[in-house]
């Protein structure tokens, strides 16, 4: 069994950078060895939907969409209806709210999400 501390759950923004192959995506892949690690990174089914929506909204061409499909084939898609996942989601949301951040991935109103809010994960 894979130790839980070796598992990585990726969110939409990280995958967009990886598909784009930009400096941020390369730096993240290099630092965490996302695509070369033995433990395949995890994503939620919601992230898959967000990526597909983003690709349509940004009018990605067929080549970039193919890159996205190839990347998705390398990842483990997680069913987030699991009670443990929902409990963790609730704890993270409550933590953010209790620290005055609000529950948004990148902003609370017009403020950027502070790094300190991610320590609870």
Structure description:
50% of the residues lie in helices and 8% in strands. It has 121 residues and is mostly helical. It folds into two domains: 1-79, 5'-nuclease (Rossmann fold); 81-121, no CATH class. α1 (12-20) crosses α2 (23-32) and α1 (12-20) crosses α4 (62-73). The two termini are 21 Å apart.
Count of individual domains: 2
Radius of gyration: 15 Å
- Architecture of the largest domain in CATH? 3-Layer(aba) Sandwich
Taking the alpha carbons of the first and last residues, their distance comes to 21 Å
Quantity of strands, as a count: 4
**What's the average pLDDT?**
82
CATH class of the largest domain: Alpha Beta
Low-confidence stretches: 105-121
Strands ordered across the widest β-sheet = 1-2
Strand content: 5-15%
What best-fitting shape do the alpha-carbon axes yield?
Answer: globular
């Amino acid at each position: 069994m894979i130790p839980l501390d070796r598992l990585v759950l990726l969110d939409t923004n990280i995958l967009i950078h990886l598909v784009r192959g930009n400096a941020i995506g390369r730096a993240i892949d290099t630092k965490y060895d996302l695509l070369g690690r033995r433990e395949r990174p995890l994503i939620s089914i919601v992230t898959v939907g967000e990526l597909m929506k983003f690709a349509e909204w940004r009018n990605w061409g067929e080549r970039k969409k193919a890159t996205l499909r190839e990347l998705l084939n390398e990842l483990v898609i997680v069913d987030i209806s699991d009670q443990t996942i929902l409990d963790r989601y609730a704890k993270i949301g409550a933590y953010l709210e209790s620290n005055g951040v609000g529950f948004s991935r990148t902003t609370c109103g017009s403020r950027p999400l502070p790094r300190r809010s991610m320590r609870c994960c």
